[in-house]
Amino acid sequence: MLINRIKGKDLAEFIKEWDKPPIEPHSNNSASNLRESHLGNINVLGKASCAEATLFTKHHPNFFDSIETKIKDLVICIVNDLHCITFSSCQGHPEYFDKSEQTLIEYRQREISILPRNEKEHSRLLHFFLELAHETNAAISNARIQIEVNEEILEQQLGPIIKEWTNISISFASSFQNSNDYFENLEPVYLLFLTKLKNQDAKML
Question: For helices 119-139 and 179-200, what crossing angle results, to 10°?
Answer without folding.
Answer: 120
